[in-house]
Backbone:
């Protein structure tokens, strides 16, 4: 045989028969624990009334920005820029309207709960609002808004009913849909 290799001259080979643990190769770095205040019990419950009182100025700022955007849209000559501004104005207007609608419904629910508290003090069994009851309150609010705007109530209700009917027709199986369309 020939000359033997020294230990330092042997090639370094990892045996495939030994189990390989990838965690030993890299040290684990411990990341700081992040807290989400929505789910952290240490942060307490959200008081919407206090939140709205504290940050009510933001709604006023949003309305002012909306007016500025509307003015900018009127002054703009470029059609593409005008289209972009119109979309932005519509988006912000819808945000403001949805927030106001949500606030109106929240106020109605609070009034109902106050009445229930007074009735409980008198000895009456309490009634808790279900989601369906809250949606009925939303419908009542929508009807009140239509009356305030002076829009015809029957026309808007008919339009809503037509919209819901078309949604149901889409959910219906195709065979039954064709049969029902023929009977109308």
Residues:
């Amino acid at each position: 045989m020939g000359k033997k290799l020294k230990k330092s001259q042997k090639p370094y080979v990892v045996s495939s028969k030994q189990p390989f643990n990838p965690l030993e190769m890299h040290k684990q770095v411990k990341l700081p624990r992040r807290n989400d205040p929505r789910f952290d019990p240490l942060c307490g419950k959200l008081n919407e009334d206090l939140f709205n009182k504290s940050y009510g100025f933001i709604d006023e700022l949003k309305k002012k920005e909306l007016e500025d955007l509307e003015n900018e849209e009127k002054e703009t000559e470029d059609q593409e820029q005008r289209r972009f501004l119109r979309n932005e104005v519509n988006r912000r207007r819808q945000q403001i309207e949805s927030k106001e609608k949500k606030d109106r419904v929240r106020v109605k629910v609070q009034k109902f709960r106050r009445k229930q508290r007074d009735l409980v003090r008198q000895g009456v069994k309490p009634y808790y609002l279900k989601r369906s009851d809250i949606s009925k309150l939303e419908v009542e609010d929508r009807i009140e808004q239509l009356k305030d705007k002076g829009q015809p109530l029957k026309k808007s209700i008919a339009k809503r009913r037509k919209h819901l009917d078309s949604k149901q027709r889409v959910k219906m199986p195709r065979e039954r849909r064709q049969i029902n369309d023929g009977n109308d």
User: Anything to note?
Assistant: The chain has seven helices and no strands. Residues 74 and 82 are 8 Å apart (CA to CA). The longest helix spans residues 79-122. The mean pLDDT is 85.
